[in-house]
Known about the structure:
Elements: E1 4-5, H1 6-12, H2 18-26, E2 30-32, E3 35-36, E4 42-43, E5 50-52, E6 55-56, E7 65-70, H3 93-96, E8 100-101, E9 110-116, H4 119-126, E10 134-141, H5 146-151, E11 154-156, E12 159-161, E13 165-172, E14 175-182, H6 189-197, E15 200-209, E16 212-213, E17 222-224, H7 227-236
Helix pairs in contact: 1-2
Amino acid sequence: MSREVLQKILARAGVASRRKSEDLIKAGRVAVDGITATPGQRVDPNTQSITVDGTPISLPAKLHYLILNKPRGYLTSRADPHHTRFVYDLLPAELRRALFTVGRLDCESEGLLLLTSDGDLAHRLMHPRYEVLRVYHVAVVGPRSAVHALRHGAELADGSAYPERVTVLAESAEGLVLELGLREGRKREVRRLCAAAGLEVRRLCRVAYGPVHLGDLAPGQWRRLTQDEVRTLRRTVGLSDSS
């Protein structure tokens, strides 16, 4: 059996905070399998009945956390009359309705895409207030001097934008490969910054979102995040451990 401290289960069910849940238990208002519960009691919510004032609690559905290597040519939306390929088609049927993407990658971009059913985490990961670092590898064509301009940011239609960092990873006759780090998730921000600096983007791939890295995940493939990755993501945006 998978046992958890009762206060934590009550909090997860939305009954009250852990502290207030402990008060409910001390007041004798919580029962497990019909027997009055005690503070600190460990319970298996999957096999045991838990009630508060005689009413059974209801735990939320299992939260899912996935990483997908989005291929080029796929949309992050669920439907579009002008397209036939969507990232949700790359997932098992039973997960497609349960998940939503953490931010977006435009159709021609590729790489790391987080999907989850944890709305609180997704909101914070996308919100500029939490300044979560996104890292991209970008193949560009243009003068080497444009990198200097890119490092100094640009005035875009929706305000000033500045990369956290710009590193030249490779240089050849075909152009440059850059690594860009950004802490905002504005629409097509990488492409617009490059265009403002005089660089043409030939390929754009996100390789990291906060502490989660794409690694060697093949295009079109997905995997569940590890418990450690989920914990680290939540801590990155100031959320407590949900495990």
